[in-house]
Design a protein that fits this description.
The protein is of the alpha+beta class. The protein has four domains: about 180 residues, Arp2/3 complex 21 kDa subunit ARPC3 (Orthogonal Bundle), CATH 1.10.1760; about 130 residues, no CATH class; about 110 residues, Beta-Lactamase (2-Layer Sandwich); about 180 residues, Alpha-Beta Plaits (2-Layer Sandwich), CATH 3.30.70.270. Helix content is about 60%, strand content about 15%. It has 20 helices and 14 strands. Helix 6 runs antiparallel to helix 7 and helix 18 crosses helix 19. The longest helix has about 50 residues. The radius of gyration is 50 Å and the shape is rod-shaped. InterPro entries: Biofilm_reg_signaling, GGDEF_dom, MASE1, Nucleotide_cyclase, PAS, PAS-like_dom_sf, PAS_4, Rev_trsase/Diguanyl_cyclase. Its EC number is 2.7.7.65. It comes from Aquipuribacter hungaricus.
Length: about 625
């Protein structure tokens, strides 16, 4: 009967609502009727009540499983089945009807406490406590109502009826409700068919020996076999076995067999009480064990799935992932995925157990260790920054640090997660873009933007220190002929060579820039005397004048240089203009020379002469 009801409940979604409702009503009425008749007929000889009332457990279990939308159907079925069952069992009509009503009340009270709305589940140990509270409330309500009915209508013993009916219904609820609820759960028995057959056979044999043949008080012996089922075969199997065991004990005892049969030492009332105690004891021992085992296995399965998911996510991640155990300032690597191993170089064996800080550039180590310590101490929720490796070539990583849940109960045993993203290419691209924005693409020298910035810094420093900077404005003489005769590719070779020679001749603190075409500027931050700037200019003129090999021939270019010494309060535009004027003077005086600009004259090779006035627009270059 329970198997058919379970099948009906599981297939309910695939059928129409009307078909499910009719099937549920018919099954519940028949089940309640048959169980009520059986309980009355199997009552121990001399007992006024049955040992237990399985119809109550069936009604409660069905009402709890189907949910609130079909509970009225179950309650109506309990009413009909109980009335017909009591009548067929030989009870008076008024008693049969009232007992049926009280059965409905019992089911309603129990289900109300067992679940509030959605279908009940029986999957955790806490459910046993909830079931016990609901059963006590429901069976006590029924016991009081039944005892009052018997006392008022038939002058029965109120206390005797109360103490007889209440435990019989409580025992039935504790036995049948878990069996009905377990029909909705998965069972391990199907995966262990041979073991299940062996255990069921052994339980049947032990039950027959103890309760069918023997008379010794060995009611505890089947418990060991049932515990085997609770540990190995799952909740559904053991609840059905408990139900079957108590049914068998009831049948055998009613037939006069076993230690619970009515005899010289056992009255009918005592036999009823003993069977009830037997049923409740087995339920309260076996069901918590079965649920504990099930919870443990489900927890282990979840942990295993979580671990598998973590391993898959950790190992197969596109990010570099590390687990560190920080202790005494050492960030010991305990796990590393392949991406992190490839990023840091070497092998996994070399990386595991090493100090991650040692894998970083020396300038990065202290800050990284301090950041990890802050995260572990809880003063920081996390840390994210770019760090550089210690290898060659240097690789840059964006690192994110967070604390993992404690792997043990030791508060000092902390694991730290580090995620790494290789940003070397991005940094290189940024540096390249920055270089292109501030440097000449042909020669690699500073461009106008960077020169203006450097010149502003130098002038600001000069105003504070009083040391004047020198500015050299350089222009190649007759460079146009190189482009016209040898082509622009040759001109580019010449410009790059000139740039290299200017860099070689300038000081490390000087800025060499290309303004465009064949114009260059050298900025010297501190030049106490014009002669110093002139000496540098003359060295550069001599260096550039050396032949430059272009293809199969040597090309000789000359350099005209205008030198200006920044006076206090000078501005950038003024310095460039004055240096440009001095450079034009050098060209006018014969090219291939340097001229120092003064307020009223320009000096070539140290000799003073009035500077010619050469308009910039008509100057020959």
């Amino acid at each position: 009967m329970l198997g058919e009801l379970g099948s009906l409940l599981r297939r309910g979604r695939g059928r129409s609502a009307r078909t499910v409702d009719v099937g549920l009503l018919v099954a519940a009425v028949l089940g309640t009727h048959l169980l009520s008749v059986g309980a009355v007929l199997l009552a121990p000889e001399g007992s006024v009540v049955a040992s237990w009332w399985p119809a109550a457990g069936l009604g409660t279990g069905l009402a709890a499983v189907v949910g609130p939308d079909r509970r009225r159907i179950v309650l109506f079925a309990v009413l009909l089945g109980s009335i017909t069952g009591n009548l067929e069992g030989g009870r008076a009509a008024d008693i049969a009807v009232l007992f049926a009503v009280w059965n409905v009340v019992e089911v309603a009270v129990t289900v109300r406490l067992l679940t509030d709305g959605p279908p009940a589940r029986f999957s955790e140990i806490v459910d046993i406590r909830r079931l016990a509270v609901a059963v006590v409330a429901g069976s006590s309500t029924l016991g009081v109502l039944t005892a009052l009915t018997v006392a008022l209508l038939h002058d029965g013993d109120l206390l005797l009826t109360l103490t007889a009916v209440t435990p019989s219904h409580a025992a039935a609820q504790l036995l049948v409700v878990p069996a009905v609820l377990s029909l909705r759960t998965a069972s391990r028995a199907s995966r262990r068919t041979a073991e299940t057959a062996l255990q069921v056979g052994l339980l049947a044999a032990v039950t027959v020996l103890v309760f069918g043949v023997g008379t010794l008080p060995l009611a505890f012996v089947p418990l060991t076999v049932v515990v085997w089922g609770a540990v190995r075969l799952g909740l559904r199997t053991v609840t059905l076995q408990l139900l079957g065991l108590v049914v068998a004990v009831t049948l055998l005892s009613a037939a006069g067999h076993g230690p619970f049969a009515v005899g010289a030492a056992m009255t009918g009332h005592l036999s009823t009480l003993v069977i009830q105690v037997f049923a409740v004891s087995y339920v309260m021992v076996v069901l918590p064990l079965a649920l504990a085992v099930r919870q443990r296995e489900e927890t282990a399965a979840r942990l295993s799935a979580s671990e598998a998911m973590f391993r898959g996510g950790f190992t197969g991640s596109m990010l570099g992932m590390l687990m560190l155990r920080p202790r005494d300032g050492v960030l010991r690597v305990v796990r590393a995925n392949p991406v992190a191993t490839a990023m840091l170089g070497g092998s996994e064996a070399d990386l595991l157990g090493s100090d991650l800080a040692a894998q970083l550039a020396p300038a990065e180590r202290a800050a990284f260790v301090a950041a990890v310590e802050d995260v572990v101490a809880g003063t920081s929720d996390g840390w994210r920054h770019e760090v550089a490796s210690s290898g060659t070539p240097v690789r840059w990583f964006e690192a994110a640090v967070s604390v993992l849940p404690a792997p043990s109960t030791d508060p000092g045993d902390v694991l730290v997660s580090v995620q790494l993203v290789d940003v070397t290419a991005r940094r290189d691209a940024q540096e390249q873009l920055s270089r292109l924005a501030l440097h000449d693409p042909l020669t690699g020298l500073a461009n106008r933007v960077l020169l203006a910035d450097r010149l502003a810094q130098v002038l600001a420093t000069a105003r504070r220190s009083g040391l004047a900077p020198a500015l050299l404005f350089l222009d190649l003489d007759d460079f146009k002929q190189v482009n016209d005769v040898d082509g622009h590719a040759a001109g580019d070779i010449v410009l790059r060579t000139v740039a290299d020679r200017l860099l070689a001749g300038a000081r490390a603190s000087d800025t060499v820039a290309r303004l465009g075409g064949d114009e260059f500027v050298v900025l010297c931050p501190e030049t106490p005397h014009p002669a110093d700037g002139l000496a540098l200019a003359e060295r550069l003129v001599a260096s550039v004048s050396r032949p430059i090999t272009v293809g199969t021939r040597d090309v000789v270019v000359r350099l005209s240089v205008g030198v200006v010494l920044g006076a206090p309060g000078a501005d950038a535009d003024g310095l460039l203009r004055d240096a440009d004027t001095a450079m034009y003077t050098a060209k006018a005086q014969g090219k291939g020379r340097a001229v120092v600009f003064t307020a009223g004259s320009a000096t070539a090779d140290g000799a003073t002469s009035p500077p010619p006035v050469i308009p910039a627009a008509s100057a020959a270059r």
